[in-house]
Structure formats: structure tokens, C-alpha cells
Amino acid sequence: MNYDDVMRLALERGFYAPSCEIYADAPAGFWxxxxxxxxxxxxxxxxxxREIVRRDGMVEIDGSQVMSKNVFVxxxxxxxxxxxxxxxx
Length: 89
What we know:
Layout: H1 3-12, E1 16-18, E2 31-33, H2 35-54, H3 69-75, H4 77-80
Antiparallel strand pairs: 1-2
């Protein structure tokens, strides 16, 4: 089973779903977790907290996930950033 098969199965089983998918102008890349996806995510986060944050005495923050375009302009990311893993359309 490859990545695409796993992602399709997770979508079919309700682990996650695209947010606002019925609206043509909905921003891409936003997802809603179903019951199984929420349980999986919570277990993963707790494992990360236990094994990384608490073990190493780190502090945890929770920051914004979506930022204004001006942040990326000011930081130079729009002009100079290249991600070998992804591409923009």
C-alpha cells in the first residue's frame, strides 16, 4: 500500500475531510478531523508531548497556523524561499 492508497482509505473512513469542499472559493489545504482522526491526532500529540517536550524539559507554545501574506513578504519567503518537497500553483 502506498501513500496515496493510505490517504484515500483515511478519507473514505472519515479520518479527515476537506473543509468547505462544496464551496468553489474555499481555501485549499484546510481539513476537518472526524472521530477517528481526532483520536489519532490527540494520541500523536500526547506521545510527542511525553517523549519530546516533557522528557527534554521544553516549553510548549501554540501559534497561529494561518498568517497574513504580509508576514511572508516581510520575511522574504515569497521572493527567496524554495521548498523542494512542495510547489505552489
